[in-house]
Design goal:
By secondary structure, the chain is an all-alpha fold. It has helices at about 5-15, 20, 30-55, 70-80, 90-105, 110-125, 130-145, 150-165, 170-180, 190-200, 200-215, 220-230, 235-245, 250-270, 270-285, 290-300, 305-320, 325-335, 340-355, 365-375, 375-390, 395-405, 410-420, 430-445, 450-460, 470-480. Among the domains are: about 1-15 and about 80-150, no CATH class; about 400-480, Serine Threonine Protein Phosphatase 5, Tetratricopeptide repeat, CATH 1.25.40. The longest helix has 30 residues, at about 30-55.
């Protein structure tokens, strides 16, 4: 059977098909045949309705039977086109359907775009970037080559692919091109929000959200709003938006995705039990919600239920082998005094970063975080400095500041730690980890007052932010002691 890749190559070489280029329109020859067919169809529908009315009145028949819902492929397509989470089995059906469609009609630009977006989502959910992201790119570029004009769907898909690869400059470029061509297409703005956030441009991210909310309401818009509110330090607003998004979700997988986000938010503020409830419900609704499994691991470790936490992390890594999960599991093992088990996960992290790189994913951030604490801090500095020059987001500022500190360059490290945590630099995320980094750097520079303040704030926000590093923060705070009064003037 001809593969979708071979079909893509053939479609790119073939002349554009006007039916595929403009779905819903017909050629002149088609118009001549359409009216009789429509009259026959209308008559058949009318007859069916009358017959249905008679049949519904027969004894023993159910009245008011609801119409069947959409099939799995249709459910996945609706989710993919609106940026909602889709169930993995539904995505597999959609991919199979669209692969068959483009083999039969290689000039169907819309099917190529849907197929590319489905590959992106399936790759994201399974962490199979090496296999699926290149396929997604070929499908989306084929869609554009078949129909270059007016193909916003393919442009949005390419922006989503670039965001999934952590290539935020490319995501911004694709998203802005789509916005210029179709400024009222609401699906453009979630991708722009992610791209601007990754580039540290929070003003534009907020402007994109405002435009999104003008054009769209409902769970997809609320979920994006929650992410922006969280980055602005507005946790209560973020929690309310996620609650509304989950309540309005159209399918269990979508509801599970919003509950997982709500669990993340609850854990970030130290609410272990509510976070665990969110994560559990997300996994119940969608057993393939591996981010929620990792969240369960986080919350269970914070509750001291380490055996269950290890099981949850192992399940998450098996279903969605992301480097971040390997790092968290390794640090959990290290906190339990099991360095060999930790090293196994750290070796796995390096392998997963290499595997993702084959799919075009930029793993410099997670690799830099790992190297700073468990490997080569100088290598972390090199990786993160290059990352900062290319896409200077808040996450990169925090990681770079910490890497510089770990490499012995404390003054330089503090500059980036301030960017990550100072509201004047748009560092409005209330992150215990970011504040711990800043406090530890200030302690090294003998700025005891600032160090004490930031370490206290970190532990106040979330005393359980890391099974390994929260312990270090508490020890450092105790070592700093109470503020000295030796230099306070005597006004008596």
């Amino acid at each position: 059977m001809e593969s979708a890749t071979e079909t893509a190559d053939a479609a790119a070489r073939a002349p554009a098909d006007t039916d595929a280029a403009a779905p819903g329109t017909r050629s002149g020859a088609g118009k001549g045949r359409s009216r009789p067919r429509r009259r026959v169809l209308a008559g058949a529908l009318a007859g069916g309705l009358v017959l249905g009315g008679v049949l519904l009145c027969l004894p023993g028949e159910e009245a008011g039977r609801p119409a069947p819902g959409p099939g799995p492929g249709a459910r996945a397509q609706a989710a993919v086109r609106t940026g909602a989470a889709a169930a993995l089995p539904d995505l597999a059906v959609l991919i199979g359907e669209r692969e068959a469609r483009v083999r039969a009609r290689p000039q169907d630009a819309r099917s190529w775009a849907v197929l590319g977006a489905a590959y992106v989502e399936h790759g994201r959910r399974t962490a199979d970037a090496a296999a699926l992201y290149p396929q997604a790119e070929r499908a989306l570029r084929t869609s554009l080559s078949v129909r270059p004009a007016g193909n916003t769907e393919a442009l949005v898909g390419l922006a989503a692919l670039a965001n999934a690869r952590r290539d935020f400059p490319a995501a911004r470029s694709w998203g802005e091109t789509a916005r210029k061509r179709a400024p009222k297409r609401w699906t453009v703005y979630p991708q722009l929000i992610d791209a601007y956030t990754g580039l540290g441009d929070h003003k534009r991210a907020r402007a994109a959200l405002d435009r999104l909310l003008e054009l769209r309401s409902g769970p997809a818009a609320l979920g994006r709003a929650a992410a922006v509110y969280r980055d602005e330090g507005r946790r209560e607003d973020a929690a309310a938006a996620l609650s509304d998004a989950a309540a309005g979700a159209a399918a269990p997988a979508e509801r599970a995705a919003w509950l997982e986000r709500a669990g993340q938010l609850a854990f970030e503020r130290g609410d272990r039990e509510p976070a665990l409830r969110y994560f559990r419900e997300a996994v119940r609704l969608d057993p393939d919600q591996w981010a929620a499994q990792a969240g369960r691991g986080r919350a269970l470790a914070a509750l001291g239920r380490t055996s269950e936490a290890l099981d949850a992390y192992r399940a998450a890594l098996a279903g969605q082998p992301l480097p971040q999960y390997a790092l968290e599991l390794g640090e959990l093992y290290e906190s339990l005094g099991r360095p060999r088990a930790a090293r196994v996960r750290y070796d796995l992290l390096r392998e997963l970063v290499r595997r993702e790189a084959a799919g075009g994913v930029d793993g410099a951030l997670v690799l830099g975080r790992f190297e700073a604490d468990h490997g080569d801090p100088a290598a972390a500095v090199r990786q993160l400095l290059a990352q900062w020059r290319r896409q200077p987001g808040i996450e990169v500022a925090d990681a770079l500041g910490w890497a510089l500190h770990r490499a012995g360059r404390h003054e330089e490290g503090l500059r980036y730690a301030v960017i990550a945590t100072d509201r004047a630099h748009q560092g409005t995320v209330r992150s215990a980890s970011y504040l711990w980094h800043r406090g530890m750097i200030e302690r090294q520079l003998r700025r005891e007052g600032a160090a004490r303040r930031h370490l206290e704030e970190a532990l106040r926000i979330n005393p359980y932010f890391s099974p390994l590093h929260a312990r270090t923060a508490r020890t450092a705070l105790v070592a700093l002691g109470e503020p000295s009064v030796a230099r306070v003037p005597d006004f008596s």
